[in-house]
Design a protein that fits this description.
alpha/beta, 15 strands, globular
C-alpha cells in the first residue's frame, strides 16, 4: 500500500517520499560476495545453501571453470531437508576439507541463505563451534545473505557488521584516526588514500582491509566516513564502539568526491584552500572526462528503480554534474541521516520512493517514457522489449566508480546505452 511520508527538511531539501510495500524485484544479499571476496584476499565465503545459490553467485561473478575463487557453496540437499543427515556434522566435515585444501584462508565466513534459514540451521552457533576448533589459524564468522533478510548490497553490510566486534579497542588517549567504511576497489582506495595523505590526514584505515585479520582499531577518537551508502548496521555497530560518524555526500563524480574529501578535512582541521590546492589536478581531469559524456546526457530523463541503495547518490551525480532530468528515484531503504547531504542537493521536484511495489513502478515508468531506466537484470529485458532504454544497476555496483579518476567511467556507464540506441537507429 502506498502512502506519502514527509522527510524532515534538510537545509534546502524538503522532499516527500512515496513509501511502497509490494512485490519486489531485487537480488539477495549473497551477491555481495562477488566484490567482497576480491577485496579481502585471505578470506573465504562458504554459503550454506542450495544449488540455486551456487548458480546465482557463479553467474553473477562470471568466474571461469578453471578459476579458484574464494567462495563456494555447501549444498543443502534432500537428506538435509528431510532431517536424515546431521547438518552440523556435515558442515564440520565440509569446513575441515576446505581448510585442509586451502591453508591460505585466515577468515572463513559461513553465509546463511534462504534454505539454511528455512531448516533453522543455527550458523551463529556453528561459527562459534568451528572458531573454537580452528582459531588462531582461522577465524570463523557468520552472517546472513538470505533473501528473506537481506537484499543485494545489504550482504556487505551484514558481513562488515560481523567484523566490528573483533576490531581492537583504541586507547582513550589515541590520536584521531579516519576510518573509511565500505568496500572499494584497490585502485580507488589507493587514489583516495593518496589524496587524504596529501591533505595532511595521515592516520587513515579502511574497513574492510585487504587482509581480513588486519582490522583497524576503533574508539572515541575514530572518525567514521562512509564510502558506501548501504552500511546502516555496520555504522551502528561502529558507533556503539565509540566511532563518530562524519556526514558527507558519497564520492561519486568530481563534486561528490570533493565534498566527501571536504567532510574529512573539516573533521581534521584541513582548510578549504588546502583541499582545493591538493585536488586541483584531479578535479581538472574529472571535469574534462565528464564534459565528453555531458554532451550525450544533458537534458535526458532518467528513472531509477530501487535496487542497491546507491540510487540517491547516483541521482545527485547525474543531475548535478551531467545535467540529466530526474523523473523518479527509487531506493530499497532510505536512511535519512546517511543521505541528508545528498538529499540537500537533489532538485525540489524529484519524486523519491522508498521500498518497492514493482507493478505500480512499471505503470509509472511506462507512463513517463524516460530516456533511460536504471533497473535490475530481471526488469531490463521486458522494458527493452517495450521500447525503453535500460542500464543494469548491478554494473554500477560491480564497477569501480568512486573518486575523481573514475568519474568519467561512471558517466560513460549512463551514456553507453543511449549511444548504443543512437547507433542502432542510424
Amino acid at each position: 500500500m502506498a502512502g506519502v511520508i514527509p522527510i524532515e527538511p534538510q537545509g534546502c531539501a524538503s522532499h516527500e517520499v512515496l513509501r511502497e510495500r509490494g512485490q519486489r524485484e531485487v537480488f539477495c544479499g549473497l551477491t555481495g560476495i562477488v566484490w567482497m571476496h576480491r577485496k579481502m584476499q585471505d578470506a573465504f565465503f562458504l554459503v550454506v545453501g542450495s544449488r540455486t545459490c551456487a548458480h546465482l553467485i557463479q553467474s553473477a561473478a562470471g568466474v571461469m571453470i578453471f578459476a579458484e575463487p574464494r567462495f563456494a557453496t555447501a549444498i543443502i540437499d534432500e537428506r538435509d531437508l528431510a532431517g536424515l543427515a546431521d547438518a552440523n556434522a556435515e558442515l564440520d566435515r565440509v569446513v575441515a576439507q576446505l581448510l585442509q585444501r586451502r591453508p591460505d584462508i585466515r577468515t572463513l565466513f559461513l553465509v546463511g541463505s534462504c534454505p539454511s534459514e528455512v531448516i533453522k540451521l543455527d550458523l551463529a552457533r556453528a561459527a562459534q563451534r568451528l572458531d573454537a576448533q580452528h582459531f588462531p589459524q582461522v577465524r570463523v564468522l557468520n552472517y546472513s545473505g538470505s533473501g528473506i533478510e537481506t537484499t543485494f548490497t545489504q550482504g556487505e553490510d551484514a558481513c562488515l557488521a560481523a567484523l566490528v566486534p573483533h576490531m581492537p579497542q583504541a586507547k582513550p588517549a589515541a590520536a584521531p584516526q579516519l576510518l573509511v567504511v565500505g568496500t572499494l576497489a584497490d585502485v580507488v582506495e589507493d587514489q583516495l588514500q593518496r589524496l587524504l595523505h596529501a591533505m595532511g590526514i595521515d592516520d587513515v584505515a579502511f574497513l574492510p582491509a585487504r587482509h581480513s585479520r588486519s582490522l583497524p582499531e576503533v574508539g572515541q577518537n575514530t572518525r567514521m566516513l562512509l564510502a558506501q551508502p548501504y552500511l546502516a548496521d555496520t555504522a551502528r555497530a561502529l558507533q556503539a564502539r565509540g566511532a563518530v560518524h562524519v556526514p558527507a555526500p558519497y564520492p561519486l563524480g568530481a563534486v561528490g568526491t570533493t565534498a566527501w574529501l571536504g567532510a574529512a578535512g573539516d573533521a581534521f582541521g584541513v582548510t578549504r584552500a588546502h583541499l582545493l590546492s591538493v585536488t586541483e589536478a584531479a578535479r581538472q581531469r574529472a571535469s574534462r572526462a565528464l564534459a565528453k559524456q555531458r554532451e550525450v546526457l544533458q537534458g535526458k530523463s532518467v528513472f531509477f528503480f530501487p535496487d542497491s541503495q546507491l540510487e540517491i547518490p547516483l541521482a545527485r551525480f547525474v543531475s548535478q554534474e551531467l545535467g540529466m532530468r530526474l523523473t523518479e528515484v527509487g531506493t530499497p531503504y532510505l536512511h535519512r541521516a546517511h543521505m541528508a547531504p545528498e538529499l540537500e542537493q537533489l532538485p525540489q521536484d524529484v519524486r523519491l520512493s522508498e521500498g518497492q511495489d514493482v507493478e505500480r513502478q512499471l505503470d509509472r515508468v511506462h507512463a513517463q517514457r524516460p530516456d533511460l531506466v536504471v533497473c535490475g537484470l530481471g526488469l531490463a529485458n521486458p522494458l527493452e522489449a517495450r521500447g525503453l532504454t535500460t542500464k543494469w544497476s548491478i554494473e554500477l555496483v560491480f564497477t569501480p566508480i568512486q573518486g575523481y579518476d573514475q568519474a568519467g567511467d561512471l558517466a560513460e556507464l549512463f551514456a553507453r546505452p543511449l549511444n548504443r540506441g543512437m547507433r542502432l537507429a542510424a
